[in-house]
Design a protein that fits this description.
Blueprint lengths: L1 E5 L12 E5 L10 E9 L3 H6 L19 E8 L9 E4 L6 E4 L5 E2 L14 H14 L6 E4 L5 H12 L3 E6 L2 H9 L5 E4 L5 H8 L4 E5 L4 H7 L3 E9 L18 H10 L3 E4 L9 H14 L6 E5 L4 H9 L6 E5 L3
Parallel strand pairs: 8-9, 8-11, 9-10, 11-12, 12-13, 14-15
Antiparallel strand pairs: 1-2, 3-4, 3-6, 3-15, 4-5, 5-7
The structure holds NADPH dihydro-nicotinamide-adenine-dinucleotide phosphate (NDP).
The site of NADPH dihydro-nicotinamide-adenine-dinucleotide phosphate has 32 residues, from helix 2, helix 3 and helix 6.
Keywords: Oxidoreductase
Pfam families: ADH_N_2 (PF16884), ADH_zinc_N (PF00107)
Organism: Roseiterribacter gracilis
Length: 333
């Protein structure tokens, strides 16, 4: 069994030596247990938070423990009557090639393309669905803005906003991602947040202001959005990846007074959400999203990294915008 453990808590952006690849003996399974072999490992920005000691909505990873993560796994041995050898399941094996499970917290998958259960049909798509449709609630003709617009969550937000008839502004990093957001995801406008005049471009793209800002990133994008918010704007807070590696308050003037005053004056709603609180909507999500994918209404893009040992570099790249689509590591066939 190969596993990647947390060797050291990262300070700022994680570096390769914060993680360590180890080889350990394969455990024998007991009664009721299963041996799972990892096929795909999901890499997600929340893992950065779990590497730190700070309190978040889940506990930190202990030093020396495998990094947490969702996997798509195949049952390699079974002493559990609910699972047979060969079954494909979604599991929480973490960053390891094998995992002994007691059969709880698994979901059997019967899909042509099971890695989608980590992306557009998994937490990423579900976050887009809940954040946009349950909190953002865009109406036809309203303006929706979203950054990290070609990523796992953002690409689905763009397409759902467009399906709801909103004027959709996609924000992404670099010319290739901007072109993809415009031409494939079919955003009404696509902008590069790295452009020096990004704030002016955003203002020009939102002549009627912004009604829904789906927050994936924080940082400079949020700064540019706040002056454009309309009365009764809704801001679902899904993530703030621009700030995950912060070690001290960002340089420059304190932005919080202008943010909070705008929320007050505009009677705006900012609401943080975590998909695990919305499990009662999961079946509906799965049915809706499967239909939209089958109809071609929603397209998806995976960023597949080949080889378990490449997970640390891919994770570091994900926090820095090097990915183009939902990141999954292909661990085995
Ligand atoms: P993505 O596939 O979107 O990858 C992250 C992207 O963030 C990068 O590709 C980059 O895109 C963008 N980014 C990184 N740094 C910055 C920055 N400083 N300014 C602007 N953009 C930046 O990841 P996910 O789709 O997995 O996650 C998106 C967000 O959703 C994250 O914040 C994540 O934590 C959150 N999330 C929350 C969930 C919840 O339940 N609340 C569930 C799942 C995800 P680009 O190159 O285009 O800038």
């Amino acid at each position: 069994n190969r596993r990647i453990v947390l060797a050291r808590r990262p300070v700022g952006a994680p570096v390769a030596s914060d993680m360590r690849l180890e080889e350990v003996a394969l455990p024998a399974i007991g009664d009721g247990q299963l041996l799972l072999k990892t096929l795909f490992l999901s890499l997600d920005p929340y893992m950065r938070g779990r590497m730190s000691e700070d309190r978040s909505y889940s506990p930190p990873i202990a030093l020396g423990d495998p990094i947490v993560g969702r996997t798509i796994s195949r049952v390699a041995e079974s002493r559990n009557r609910d699972y047979a050898v060969g079954d494909v399941v979604m599991a929480n094996s973490g960053w390891q090639t094998h995992f002994v499970s007691d059969g709880t917290a698994l979901r059997k998958l019967d899909m042509q393309h099971p890695s989608l259960a980590l992306g557009v049909l998994g937490s990423a798509g579900f976050a887009a669905y809940i954040g946009l449709l349950e909190i953002g609630k865009p109406k036809p003709g309203e303006t929706v803005a979203v950054a990290a617009a070609t990523g796992g969550v953002g690409a689905t937000v763009v397409q759902l906003a467009r399906l709801r008839g909103a004027h959709t502004i996609a924000i992404a990093g670099g010319a290739d991602k901007v072109a993809y957001a415009r031409d494939v995801l079919r955003a009404d406008v696509a902008l590069d947040h790295r452009a020096p005049d990004f704030a002016a471009q955003l203002k020009a793209a939102a002549p009627n202001g912004i009604d829904v800002y789906f927050e994936n990133v924080g940082g400079d994008v949020l700064h540019a959005v706040v002056p454009l918010l309309n009365d009764r704007a809704r801001i679902p807070i899904c993530g703030v990846i621009a700030w995950y590696n912060l070690t001290e308050a960002p340089a420059g003037p304190d932005f919080s007074p202008s943010l909070v005053r705008t929320i007050l004056r505009r009677r705006a709603l900012m609401e943080g959400f975590v998909v695990s609180d919305w499990l009662h909507k999961q079946e509906q999500f799965f049915a809706d999203m499967t239909k939209w994918i089958d109809d071609g209404a929603i397209v998806y893009r995976e960023h597949v990294v080949d080889g378990f040992e490449n997970a640390p570099a891919a994770f570091i790249g994900l926090l820095d915008g090097k990915n183009f689509g939902k990141v999954v590591v292909k661990v085995a066939d």
